């Protein structure tokens, strides 16, 4: 429509590569996805600290040990 901004869609192998490609356009960058992706982008773009992600396998904790 009238006044609509052009939209460019590209694929990248990872977030740092995607951000580098987006920066080449010199326009605002929109990051859409999971909160994990947005948090990683925030850390990369702003230098903000990222919270560590505690990862565990709940089924491993419930498995009986021989």
Short summary:
The chain is elongated and about 65 Å long. It has 66 residues and is an all-alpha fold.
What does this molecule look like?
The protein has 66 residues and is an all-alpha fold. 39% of the residues lie in helices and 0% in strands. The chain has helices at 15-23, 35-46, 58-62. The protein is elongated, with a radius of gyration of 18 Å. The model has no long low-confidence stretch (mean pLDDT 80).
Which features characterize this protein?
single chain; 66 residues; mainly alpha; 39% helix; elongated
**Could you give the count of β-strands?**
0
What is the element string, with H for helices and E for strands? HHH
Backbone shape:
elongated
Poorly predicted tracts of residues? none
Report how far apart the termini are. Answer: 67 Å
Helix content: 25-40%
Beta strand %: under 5%
Tally of individual helices: 3
Please state the structural category: mainly alpha
Mean pLDDT comes to: 80
Query: Radius of gyration, rounded?
Result: 18 Å
Could you state the oligomeric state of the chains shown? single chain
The description of the largest β-sheet is: none
């Amino acid at each position: 429509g009238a006044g609509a901004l052009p939209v460019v869609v590209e694929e990248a192998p990872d977030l740092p590569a995607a951000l580098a490609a987006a920066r080449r356009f010199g326009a605002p960058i929109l990051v859409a996805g999971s909160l994990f992706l947005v948090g990683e982008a925030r850390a990369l773009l702003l230098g903000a600290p990222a919270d560590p992600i505690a990862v565990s396998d709940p089924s491993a904790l419930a498995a009986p040990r021989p």
